[in-house]
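Explain this fold:

***
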Amino acid sequence: MEDRSDAAVVREGFYGDYYEHLAEEDARGYSPELLISRADKHKQIAASRKPGNPIVEIGTESDRSVVYIVTDDMPFLVDSVNAELVRQNCAIRLVMHPLFVVTRDRVSNELVGVSRVPSNIGISSGDTAALPSVAHLLGDGDNASHMESWIAVEIDRVSEDARDELVSGLQRVLGDVRAAVEDWPKMRSKALEIAEALGTISHPEQIAELRQAQDLLRWLDNGNFTFLGYREYDLINDNGEDVLELREESGLGLLRAGDTTRQIQHLTDAGRKRAREKRALVITKANSRSTVHRPAYLDYIGVKSFDAAGNVNGERRFIGLFATSAYTGSVRNIPIVRDKVDAVLRNAGFPTDSHSGKDLLGILETYPRDELFQIEIPDLAATAMGIQRLQERRRTKLFLRPDIYGRFMSAVVYLPRDRYTTSVRLRIEQELRETFQAESIDYEARITESALARVFFRIRLPRTAELAEVDVPELEHRLMRASRSWSEGIAEVLRENRPAESAEVLSALWAEAFPPRLPRRLRGRGRA
């Protein structure tokens, strides 16, 4: 029988504050004794901590483990911790994230008091406007108070062998969060400083996208970009080869480490060809995924620097993640993107208020937003017109675009909506993986009332890959075969190999004779 006194304790004082946001349906899955034990364990771990130094410990219960974290409050903590746990294949069962005003002895850093955050402070660890929250809030004689995040994540039981790797991974992520948060104001200032400097360049008429670069940097600073790292490079010729040389001590955020010594970054063939182009902007995806906020590939925004003669002499590089507003706002309100959209609409020649003009604008508004930032205008125009010509026809169509540095391949696949399932998506993904020897593939599916579904794939290419010509029609045919049902496949093969009347009879007989999930070797590969 439940101990009512323990149940009451969980709702009072420190325990009540600790479990303030525990949903009732989640609480019913745990005994009050266990909840009290976990809160006490967390408080014990937090007993001594120097501000600036996070604590990560893993407690083990009968069939599960609990990751306990005590750290200064900052944005992105929970998202970043969860992403690292997922990366290390830890199944997350429950997340607790109490936020406390903690009082510690100024000398010993021993815990003196713990209390819930007063409602009038109004700071949330998920609020990017609260970046200074890592600072002390209060001082009282020998004690100092500041905000701390206590995170407890219940996961499947962790083996002894995996424990050290998990702790070190979480410590690394917490360090990355701190670096990004501490340098956030400096990175924002850099964006505005560079925007102003671009207005003083000699011979601005010789440099493409100069005004767009200024507009973009100001737009990024206006809450549309999560700044995570910054570095500066000089473009130099080293033994006959153009390379980027790190400007020492220019790194901020995730790029602040290792910038105190001379470093040379060699460029890919594609990078060398573009290094001295008189274009102000380079927008692409970085090689690595973010360890802060969400585990997507980092957005890379390079702003070139120019000498007095207007020649390229370096690059200022921001890495981070576009904010939600960059994906939900109209393309007409986003620098760089709006210019590309206007160019495509203008080149198409449709009146803006015509059916075709509105239809084309709708295609551009809903096109994968990351692609709009990166794609060149001719490629965007060809793709948008190709999509428009599809109309509502039930067919499979593929559009490919290589990254300018040859690190990624983007694939936009349209297919009949009623064919789209997880298994179909996985079969298409496998065809793409084999074609490009992909290291990894991310996807984004869009299904509306249209007769066609759209799946966008970002394909990470091998580091040593050399982009060869891809037989797009042949690959498209393979994707069509991967997406068709058994009944469609058997009907097609029979039509190719039997007289029309016989094919119709056999198709009716065998169309529903097998389950939908067939071995890959049987999906329309044989002969009737």
About this structure: The CA atoms of residues 300 and 319 lie 5 Å apart. The radius of gyration is 28 Å.
